[in-house]
Amino acid sequence: MPASRRTKFVLWTTLCVFLVFIAWFARSLYHAWHRFASEERICGAFHPIISAIDKFHETTGTLPTNLTQLVPAYVPQIPTTPVADSIDYRVMPDGTNWELAVHSRITGALRMYVQRSSGQFTEEEQQQGVTGFHGWVVFRESR
Predict the structure, then answer these.
(1) Fewer CB atoms inside 10 A, N or C side of the chain?
(2) HSE on the CB side for 72, CA within 13 Å?
(3) Residue 37, Cα to own-chain centre: how many angstroms?
(4) What angle do CA 9, 21, 38 make, to 5 degrees?
């Protein structure tokens, strides 16, 4: 006995809803993977810079005033695009800690990835942070 029109309609509707759900899930999974991979690229690109700052501090007893002091003795070059649109480095007011801020569109939206030697962020900064990974705190930017 052939299936009725109503049965066919219910089956096709259920199949379409299921396929839309699968597509939505796959898209969400891809975006999460892309964000993770992009954050890992930033971490991998700037880990040598962070290590170089620490080695410079151990060797000289002072923090570098700018990142160019690290090239070529501590690191061959400063990473640039496609990972970073711009890089800001500063010695914190206490004179013993530093901050590295990487401005990047690697995930599509403009974000600022901040790493501090102290690892300390104010409560307000933590609330403004979008996410964090490997000691970095990520902020949204609107330029």
Answers:
(1) N
(2) 1
(3) 9
(4) 160
